[in-house]
Write a structure and sequence with these properties.
260 residues; alpha/beta; six-stranded mixed sheet; binds adenosine-5'-diphosphate
């Protein structure tokens, strides 16, 4: 039981973005999608989220063709935290998190739905903010509410597109720890598009490096973070070392002289 992505192709008009992308993620794994800006991380995430439709390829999850699931079934299977969440800003945190339950209930939420909402609010440390409107929150607080919505959705596949971009260091670490814990405890498979290689190396089981719409490395962080490859992909001199069992990537920074 795993996520199997096979030969995915995706183009915007006149512009091919994903080229023959194949990837397998084991059930219960926390997988990082890495790569420079424009390498295709969001596009791939949106395909799995049912937002983008690929021109070729297949996606199977738990043996089911993810691309042919009906909307409600898809929403019961896949939770998605988009990069720029169009948060319904007039809702309170609690109401916004409840939106994650809509695929699960009929006319109105039941006890189980509210329980999942309360659990997610607590897990994301939002208890004191639950009655505040999203419009009254900081970017990072609103981002945590959107993650809580996806957690309350209680799906077997969780997709997160740069969910920590607006978070301070504490909440970056706590959110990544939480997702890791959820994959461990509940056997949920999570995919995260993230820029911080060291956070990916610390919290993720699998790291996938995209460049120009192709996968150029995949494996454990210690396998996938190869200094020469990272230099080539990011166009930046880096060193990679193993520290306390984790891969640590450091940019080699040279002073620049600007001639203006
Ligand atoms: P990443 O998430 O790795 O930064 P994206 O998947 O967002 O990369 O983008 C991959 C490529 O697709 C980029 O070249 C980007 O400019 C292009 N792209 C993204 N969204 C659109 C769009 N709506 N229309 C046209 N091109 C797009």
């Amino acid at each position: 039981m795993s996520l199997e992505i096979t030969d995915i192709e995706f183009s915007y008009p006149g512009h091919t973005v994903l080229k023959g992308v194949s990837l397998e993620v084991q059930q219960g794994s926390f997988c990082a999608l890495l790569g420079p800006n424009g390498s295709g991380k969001s596009t791939l995430t949106k395909i799995l989220a049912g937002v983008n439709r690929p021109s070729a390829g297949r996606v199977r999850f738990d043996g089911v063709d993810l691309l042919s699931l009906r909307r409600r079934e898809h929403a019961r299977t896949v939770g998605y935290v988009p990069q720029s969440a169009e948060a319904p800003f007039d809702l309170t945190v609690r109401e916004a998190v409840l939106l994650g339950r809509t695929p699960h209930y009929g006319l109105r939420p039941g006890r189980k739905d509210w329980q999942k909402v309360d659990d997610a609010i607590e897990l994301l440390g939002l208890t004191e903010l639950e009655s505040r409107r999203l419009s009254e929150l900081s970017g990072g607080q609103a981002q945590r509410a959107i993650v809580a919505r996806a957690i309350a959705q209680d799906t077997r596949l969780l997709l997160l597109d740069e969910p920590t971009s607006a978070l301070d260091l504490r909440y970056q670490v706590e959110t990544l720890q939480l997702v890791r814990w959820i994959t461990r405890q509940r056997g949920i498979t999570a995919l995260i598009a993230i820029h911080d290689l060291n956070h990916a190396g610390r919290f993720c089981d699998q790291t996938v490096l995209l460049n120009g719409g192709r996968i150029v490395a995949s494996g454990s962080p210690l396998e996938a973070f190869e200094a020469e490859l990272l230099r080539e992909v990011y166009g930046l001199d880096v060193t990679v070392e193993e520290r306390d069992g984790y891969a640590e990537v450091r940019p080699v920074v040279h002073e620049l002289e600007y001639q203006i």
